[in-house]
Amino acid sequence: EQGRGGKGIISISLKEGDYVKQTVTAMLKDYLLFLSNKGKAYWLKGYEIPIGDRYSQGKAIVNMLKLSEGERIEKVINTALFGNMFINFITKKGIVKKVKAEKFSRPRSTGIKFITMQDDELADACLSDGSSQLFICTRNGKALRFDENGLRPMGRSAKGVRGIRLSQSDSVVNILAIKDESLIATITEGGFGKITEANKYRLQKRGGKGVLNIKTREKTGFVVKALAVAPDDEIFLINSKGLSITFPASSIRKTGRSASGVKLMKLDDGAKVVDAQVIRKKDDTQFS
Q1: 104 — phi, psi (to 5°)?
Q2: Strand 142-147 and strand 211-212: pairing?
Q3: Among 95, 131, 135, which residue's Cα sits nearest to residue 115?
Q4: How far is CA 225 from the centre of its chain?
Q5: Which tens digits make up the pLDDT trace of 52-94?
Q6: What is the pTM of this model?
Q7: Alpha carbon distance 154, 103 (integer Å)
Q8: Is 216 in a helix, a strand, or coil?
Q9: DSSP symbol at 16
């Protein structure tokens, strides 16, 4: 743990052109669900991924999963979290879809199709309990909060429905399952971030244009991710050069929707924040 605004420490050795996309923790016997940009799901046991130290480069995912040409992994979910949950998928163009998580509990070596898309790609997925609110975050700083009951469960091959209506230059970054009392942390590429109470975003119907979430400027860069945090959580950031930093969520003061935020991570020239995760104090082994 460090104070916010620091440079961080090396977390992974990266080859030229490579960058960190997501972090997730699991036990060795847990099944990890890999979701691709083309709408296919694959599985790996935790122990099938090589163990390395902080300076390891890791192993190429194409050597572990049977991916097609142009296919890449967009999201990893630990299936140990499934229970009686739903998976909510969202595409970059704002199409959303809800499927019972149990439909992904039987691994298949060749993978399965989980959404039908045309001229679109998967942006993100999140787990929900069926009675949550869903929060959609976009690259240009817009957000939409709507009741999960407004999204009925579908079959794996369904196309989905409109989640948010986007401007031509915008795209979806991620989706969260939240409650009224949730706190939303929004992180940008330039290492800036802010925390806003979820109830500051008016509850809308699915398919709307959303509201302003954060003012993005040249110094802040575009939005990387939104996180649902609690005051005693820690926030983990990692940048494109493999440096990471962890700091208390409480070190970011609450602000309104239109703020640009404060500096969370100092970046070298050419670096940008590429992922943010929550570390729960109640369970130090689990990234959310």
Answers
A1: -115, 20
A2: antiparallel
A3: 95
A4: 6
A5: 877 777 788 888 898 988 899 999 998 888 888 999 999 999 9
A6: 0.84
A7: 11
A8: coil
A9: T
